Amino acid sequence: MSERMRETEVVLIGIGAAGGIAAQVLTAAGIEVVALEAGPRLDPKPFLLDEVRNDVRSYMSRPKSTGELPSWRFDASEKAGASPYPLLMVNAVGGTSVHYDCWSFRFQPWNFRGRSASIERYGAGSIPAGSTIADWPLSYEELAPAYDAVEYAIGIAGAACNIDGVRGDEGNWFEAPRSRGFPMPPQRMTGWNEMIAGAARRLGWHPYQSPVALNTQPYNGNGVCTYCGFCASGTCPQNAKSSTNLTTIPIAEATGLLRIETGARVTRIEVGVDGRVTGVTYIQDGTERFQPAKVVLLGAFVYENARLLLPSKSRAYPDGLSNNHGQVGKHYMLHMTPHAYGLFPGRRLNRFNGAPGQVLSLDDWNADNFDHSGLGFIGGAMLSSMHELKPIQVTSLPLPPGVPRWGAGWKDWIAKNANSIGTVNAQMEVLAYEHNVLDLDPEKRDPYGEPVIRITHKLGENEQRGWAFMEARLQEWLREAGASEVWTRGRVHLDGRHAYGGTRMGNDPETSVVDKWGFSHEAPNLGVIGSSVYPTTGGCNPTLTLQALAWRTAEHLVADWKTRAG
Amino acid sequence: MAAMPESGLDPTQLALLDAITSRLVPSGSDGLGAHEAKVSRYIDLALTDDYRSLLPLYIEGLADLDAVAVARYERGFLELAPDEQDGLLAATEAGEEGLPLQTFFELVLRHTREGMFGDPVWGGNDAYTGWRLLSYPGPRYEWTAEEQQLDFAIEPRYGDRGER
């Protein structure tokens, strides 16, 4: 028998990049929130300038890396094993926004209607067989106010180009209209970025120093980036990262309406006879507790959102919560991440210093900003060049053909060239397919006895052609910059840290789990926040868009409180 | 915290690991190799800590590799000439001695890079051997605009790990 807690208005499952945003909006409107967070409040101090601790051994994501990561298989006929691609989740107040690189891009308007726009421009045959790509149930214009609200709430540094349709000289030439500039100027330009920007311009592309959630001025009472270059997998020594634990969550807590329970692992979402959710069961300090609530907002990571819904079975939902149409776990996607490497002999590129937020990127090959006729694929990628290339990282990069992997030959090569390797990368869109799904692994269990998520994912030809195309653009870019030699990873690489789907958003309950506001088609007082609701991946980082959606979901809940809360 | 063993590997195993990693990053004329960086100490400490679960794999891998040396040359790995050691490691890398040893080789190579180029606090990169090899100037809390220019030569300053 679980211990029954006092009822609250909203229970938030996970207070990370998305939940931290929703908490601020809800508490500002006077709504009482209890956040159940499986992880701790992280003390920033242990996260030193230490590549072994932060990057290699992932101290921050340890609770997740020890036994809760999904298993992987390429085909339903296989037995699932360890994922060949990176997967990372963080259990902590602030979630993945604590460890991320802070890249904070809005999606392109095309991303919200990629299916219909592709059919209009290239015909119905441009949609690959078996793909379940769908338009979003909302447009860029509908999300724009929430993008703006989040950019100012957490603090984004960047240069605007397109304010209400009027283009300036700075920022992203392909930027969709925004109502005002960014709250802070962009990150400092560097020698490497100048060089690679010059090459892009010579190719006719439009590079720009990109928007990041990394303070270039004091903001929210937090510090300013000093370009140490230990963003990834670490907290910020200056508290300059706009992680939600440093920005929106303290504001929400100051209202007195947000209570955060750490070390609280939610195991089930409970349902009443009428099909409405009644609260959640969780385990804390070895005790099982039940937290009743009028509304449940599910804001864990993509894999964990599906992992909580599927086993939450009841009379109303025999196949898992909000799964009466069999859509939970469907339309799973992740990014492809082509990289290219170039050698600039004798040059000191000085890329081991500097923040990954000192990112230069371009949208010439993103979305449908280029003609896809005859290319055999739809979708696009943002191309980027960045800083932060630390010693273990640089010595672990793929090598050019002919260079040995170890021994005296390797040692001589790396000693000469470690500071002369330039890299550029892309985040390539992957479409949803019928066969790419998440479900519960029938065998592998986490240390608490619960099944982990099993990923079944295989790339389509659309994606393989897109990969080759983007890899060619990246190599072209480095050659134009003067690289004497250019090479790549040599095989397709996916990144499961940029994960999408499983609780898709849409207007049709037959093909989606939540509506355009992020609320379940089936259980009216259950909302889902995070990139699990994305119908498409987009060609850039997910965080800002999922934060804008969380803002919008919370605003909708405030406006529609009486209906939703019952 | 439970008491941890001081060493995961015994002295014979450690000597073998030192010999293997010293072929992966040889000392050469500059004396900046895995032996000087104490890479085997890094791995040994990790095997009593975060990589505890890999200790059996290491013990077995080291024994198997030595057995391959005996089978091929009728001498243990430590008694082989450097080019014989390299040949044996290359064969292992290529999978000629089976998948488990190939996997073990990749693991040692990965851990060698960590012990060579990671922060010395973890037991490797002794005397900043690895960082000196790469001309890496060390981590810093703050980098100036000048230090982020192309071709700017940054003077090394080691020891700034961030304890405050």
Strand and helix layout:
The complex is a heterodimer of chains A (566) and B (164).
Chain A: E1 3-4, E2 8-13, H1 19-28, E3 33-37, H2 51-56, H3 62-65, E4 71-73, H4 96-99, H5 114-122, H6 140-155, E5 162-163, E6 166-167, H7 191-202, E7 208-209, H8 248-254, E8 258-262, E9 265-271, E10 277-284, E11 287-298, H9 302-309, E12 333-336, E13 339-343, E14 360-362, E15 381-385, H10 391-395, H11 407-417, E16 421-428, E17 437-445, E18 451-456, H12 461-480, E19 485-488, E20 494-500, E21 526-528, H13 543-559, H14 561-565
Parallel strand pairs in A: 1-11, 2-3, 2-11, 3-8, 4-18, 11-21
Antiparallel strand pairs in A: 5-6, 7-14, 9-10, 10-11, 12-20, 13-16, 13-19, 14-15, 15-16, 17-18
Helix pairs in contact in A: 1-8, 1-13, 6-13
Chain B: H1 11-24, H2 34-37, H3 39-47, H4 55-73, H5 82-93, H6 99-117, H7 129-134
Helix pairs in contact in B: 1-3, 3-6, 4-6
Describe this structure in words.
The complex is a heterodimer of chains A (566) and B (164). Chain A is an alpha/beta fold and 566 residues long. In chain A, 24% of the residues lie in helices and 19% in strands. Chain A has 14 helices and 21 strands. In chain A, helix 1 packs parallel to helix 8 (248-254) and helix 6 (140-155) packs across helix 13. Chain A starts with a strand and ends with a helix. In chain B, 41% of the residues are buried. Chain B is mostly helical and 164 residues long. In chain B, helix 1 crosses helix 3 (39-47), helix 3 (39-47) packs across helix 6 (99-117) and helix 4 (55-73) packs across helix 6 (99-117). Chain B is elongated and about 55 Å long. Chain B starts with 10 loop residues before the first helix and ends in a 30-residue tail after the last helix. The interface between A and B is large, with 47 and 48 residues.
